[in-house]
Please model this.
Amino acid sequence: MPKDTTYASLLPDETGYFPYTADDDAVWGELFTRQMDFLPGKVAPEYLDGVTKLGLSASKTPQVKEIDARLHALTGAGAHGVPAIIPPSQFYDLLSQRKFPVATFLRRREHMDYIEEPDLFHEVFGHCPMLTNDAYCDFIEGFGHRAKALGMGYSWHMFRLFWFTVEFGMIRTPEGLRAYGAGIVSSPAEAGHAMSGDALMQDFDLQTVFRTPYRIDIVQPTYFVIESFDQLAGLLEADFGALIYQAKAMGDLPALFPAKEAS
Model:
């Protein structure tokens, strides 16, 4: 989701490539290696397949242009480089085109373990592998269309749907619960927490998701579990507007986390 950032946006050269440095390559490589060593047994097989299909590796910082071309060939999806801050209307518009907005700056070494704003590692390593799955892409595209049609009055509840699926979604597999949300797969702390048995796992229910508050600066106290990516795409058949109207009337469920202290 769009957010304020302390990082400067990068601009591509005339060929569409971003000027990543040797230091960037080193940071990317360390992040990639750490997560790939940690994630087996914790993430959906479709995610790991996506890493392979996109040719992601520890050797070099990926370029959005190349990721976009691979996604287009695989599922008709794409990746689109954006500044760190884009308005919700642009965010939704890109999703409705089956394109995922990608912040192009990479975190600095002092933020290896946590960065509040999404960076290239979160976007490409976290989000893009799942865009190699057709049903997941159908959900992303349909979400964008629905959010655009509903307008700003429904945005907060649509953010919740995005949060508990695309960012922090879990899926039930024959081998057990696995993560597919980008906020889990790109974070060792979140992935460890999600698989620790300490977090509440809830069967996915759209109305409950619309009524569930969240905080962005903590590991999540609860996750919602889908049965398949076809189920995720099937959510688009629901009347989001009516469900959100009902959710507003019923009010939020009690938060499962303490209020954030004022700074």
User: Anything to note?
Assistant: The first strand starts at residue 78 and ends at 82.
